[in-house]
Amino acid sequence: MTSRSDETRGLWLGLLGVTMFAMTLPMTRLAVGPASAPQLPPMFVTAGRAAFAGLLSILYLWLTRAPRLQLRHVPALTVAALGSCVGFPLFLAWALREVDAMHAAVVTGLLPLATAIVGAIYLRQRPAISFWVCAALGCALVVIFAAMKSHSGITLADGWLVLAVISAAIGYVGGARVARDISAEQTICWVLIIALPLTLPVTIATWPKEAVHPSAWIGFTYVTLFSMWIAFFAWYRGLALGGTVRVSQVQLVQPFLALLFAVPVLGEKLEPLTVCFSLAVIGIVFLGKRMPTETRLQNVGS
């Protein structure tokens, strides 16, 4: 069973990670640019942010004298690399070429439910029915908000966003599984290093040949240092301490934080409806935190 103190620390660390992740949408949009004024290629943004973070990870593990990676952790870390370093950023970058950050924020609001479902199955966590009611209600609010804000119906970009959500959920759970055995910092570093044989060559091959606006490089730098690296330090630690199913519900506030950040970063307009839905979702997260969750763990590789 997860202790109350660990759960509280996990929730706060999860919130810190989510706050940094929330900047990913506007910063990725800044990096790739809209279809009418494209900036950095989506493939470069995807591979480059993981590759540079991977090189930083090698330096970090060397400076901290981290122990060698155990072979039993490789499968879960590979899953995390495919989900977090490849699938999520690539699908997200493709989508953000076609839709604005606010649209992407409401669709990716489904991520908490996806993470909770994957976590409950893979990590053998058994939340109470009341917890699932809160999770479902929170996700329903996100879906209703998306429907109320959409004027063009379902598009290919929405499909990319759904695939991004699925990829991120699988990646989060794979990393959280290992983070219970080694530190959160070592977990994300090894995830990025495992992905390097793929991300580094792609980065070199897709390096932009034409000049782009300096703001695009600012967006790329953020998603490299924070979205792909530092935020995971807090996020994986939070998932490991508080439990994947419970801490994942903090993600319910992520789309609304992304909406708020999109205003100063991209100049997108924030409407009162967004504030109302954000307060409602925060209330659901608070209720979900109070619902009992039973966690049963097995050794990695068992």
UniProtKB/TrEMBL annotation:
Membrane topology: Multi-pass membrane protein
Pfam families: EamA
Record localization: Membrane
Keyword list, A-Z: Membrane, Transmembrane, Transmembrane helix
Domain of life of the source: Bacteria
InterPro entries found in the cross-reference section: AA-Vitamin_Transporters, EamA_dom, EmrE-like
Transmembrane segments: 12-32, 44-63, 75-96, 102-122, 129-148, 154-175, 187-208, 214-235
Residues in EamA domain copies: 9-144, 157-286
GO cellular component, one term: membrane
Alphabetical list of PANTHER family matching this protein: EAMA DOMAIN-CONTAINING PROTEIN, INNER MEMBRANE TRANSPORTER
Family of the protein in this entry: Belongs to the EamA transporter family.
Protein name as annotated: EamA-like transporter family protein
